Amino acid sequence: MFNLEQLVPCAESSGLVITLENPGDGENNIIGSGEEGAALIQKIGSSNLRLNYDFSNVYSYSKGRIKAEDDFKKALQFSAHLHLKEMRRDGERWQFVSVGKGITDYKSVFRYLAEHEVNLPMSIELPLRFYRGSDFKIQYTPHNKPPPLSEIHKVLQESKEFVLGNFPQVNEELL
Question: Are 96 and 130 in contact (CB under 8 A)?
Answer without folding.
Answer: yes
